[in-house]
Design brief:
Blueprint (H helix, E strand, L loop, with lengths): L1 E3 L2 E4 L3 H12 L4 E5 L13 E3 H7 L6 E5 L1 E5 L5 E5 L5 E4 L1 H14 L3 E4 L2 E6 L2 E6 L4 E6 L2 E4 L6 H5 L7 E11 L7 E5 L9 E6 L4 E8 L2 H16 L6 E9 L6 E2 L2 E3 L15 H21 L4 H31 L2 H11 L2 H10 L6 H7 L3 H10 L4 H9 L2
Parallel strand pairs: 1-12, 2-3, 2-13, 3-9, 6-15, 13-20
Antiparallel strand pairs: 4-8, 5-8, 6-7, 10-11, 11-12, 14-17, 14-18, 15-16, 16-17, 19-20
This protein binds flavin-adenine dinucleotide.
């Protein structure tokens, strides 16, 4: 069965729906494919979305479960740091309903959405898809494909585009949970607890919380460590389990002739938090705009599509690269050194900067302020090893 479109978006997550909507708003014929029959399922997300993300995705009020104003962050030695608490920073959301809303928004502007259809092959100008429910194979023609097919992007492989340089595995459970403050999340840092990433607890329903942990220690490592965290601090009365891969570390290139990659497929999640809804949606919107322009110009060459590559890098590359260096630094820190960083973080002048400039999506803004204060900066350097991150931090001030 053949059908013709201008643009095909593979993937029904936030990045794909943002790209599809923008392309359709630009006046071109768009098909969006999602392999699962239930949009947003299985959920692979904690659903913490910054205010930038809420605004960008137009997240409906009824999808916002809880307002979040701050975090209790725990050091390996148990020291607890209170960050924020005075102003709204984020919302805990219902992730599957957000995916559905974003897909509905795309449909509303004319995107032809097909769910339960899995892209199974690509050649320039052509995409093959399979519908498990009917056994039907479809062939679609379109000069331009947007690969928004997530962490394990097949589109990236078919188009021979480079992959993100790092991945961590996150596992999360829903458990009975009583928050000390319902507008706070909890974050646990430590190489013993969650090697090279972190653990978390986020209030969700009335008396439930999403407790999770991500690490580069493999799936088994993540599960075992999460069980330890649950046994020590929370409940083993597990109501549901979710898990997934978080890729980051920017690939050198995200476009080639007739193909653009967005979101997790392009490694656009934040290396500091693993959050990818905001960044993926932002890049998806840019990709959708460029897709519409490319179709109207009759030019889907890599050269034309560089407008997307350049567009998203102008908005995010510096921040994501800073996050990458911060992540690399964390990978080199012992628990003892992390404890010493926490001592530094509790200093009143550092706290004042965090309070004023803290931003979940743009942590480099805080670092930019810190390097402006030589004594504060020197004190930090005394506590942790030098490395590329120092250059990255200093470059923020320029
Ligand atoms: C445990 C965990 C917790 C997280 N918590 C947060 C958080 O709190 N906040 C946050 O911002 N981010 C979080 N993230 C990251 C966030 O979930 C991703 O960055 C985000 O989903 C990326 O969106 P996307 O649209 O690029 O990819 P996805 O949301 O993965 O969407 C890709 C879609 O493509 C579909 N697909 C794949 N292959 C095909 C194919 N061949 N044919 C058709 N369809 C296909 C998939 O079914 C999927 O629906 C978390 C991730 C994990 C693993």
């Amino acid at each position: 069965m053949f059908s013709q479109y201008d643009v095909i978006v593979v993937g029904g997550g936030p990045s794909g729906s943002s790209a599809a909507r923008k392309a359709a708003e630009g006046g071109v014929r768009v098909l969006q494919l999602e392999e699962h029959t239930k949009v947003g399922r299985p959920i692979q997300c904690t659903g913490l979305l910054s205010l930038h993300g809420i605004e960008l995705t137009n997240t409906r009020e009824d999808i916002r479960l809880r307002p979040i104003t701050g975090a209790f962050v725990y050091a390996p030695d148990g020291t607890r740091l209170k960050m924020g608490g005075n102003k709204l920073q984020a919302h805990v959301i219902d992730r599957d309903r957000l995916d559905q809303q974003m897909m509905d928004d795309a449909k509303a502007v004319g995107v032809d959405v097909r769910i339960g259809l899995k892209a199974t092959g690509w050649a320039p100008g052509m995409l093959e898809a399979f519908e498990p429910a009917t056994g039907q194979v479809y062939t679609f023609e379109a000069p331009l494909i947007i690969g928004a097919d997530g962490a394990h992007s097949r589109m990236a492989n078919w188009a021979k585009l480079p992959r993100p340089t790092k991945k961590v595995y996150g596992v999360q459970v829903l458990v009975p949970y009583k928050a000390e403050r319902e507008d706070f999340v909890e974050v646990f840092i430590g190489q013993e607890l969650a090697p090279n990433f972190f653990g978390w607890a986020v209030p969700a329903g009335e008396n439930t919380g999403r407790v999770g942990l991500a690490t580069d220690d493999g799936v088994k490592g993540a599960r075992e460590r999460l069980n330890k965290l649950l046994a020590e601090r929370y409940s083993m009365d597990i109501l549901s389990v979710q898990g997934g891969t978080i890729p980051f570390g920017l690939p050198k290139q995200t476009v080639t002739d007739g193909v653009m990659l967005v979101g997790d497929a392009a490694g656009q999640a934040k290396p500091t938090s693993g959050g990818g809804i905001y960044t993926g949606s932002l890049c998806g919107q840019i990709a959708g705009d460029v897709a519409a322009s490319a179709i109207k110009a009759g030019d889907v060459s890599q050269k034309f599509l560089q407008a997307y590559e350049k567009g998203w890098r102008v908005k995010l590359e510096r921040e994501l690269n800073f996050g990458w260096h911060a992540h690399r630094l964390l990978c080199h820190l012992s628990d003892d050194q992390i404890n010493r960083v926490f001592e530094w973080l509790t200093m009143p002048d550092v706290q004042a900067i965090l309070e004023e400039y803290g931003d979940i999506d743009y942590p480099s803004i805080c670092m930019k302020e810190i390097v402006k204060h030589p004594s504060m900066w020197a004190d930090l350097l005394k506590r942790i090893p030098a490395g590329d991150w120092v250059k990255a931090a200093l470059s923020l001030a320029s």
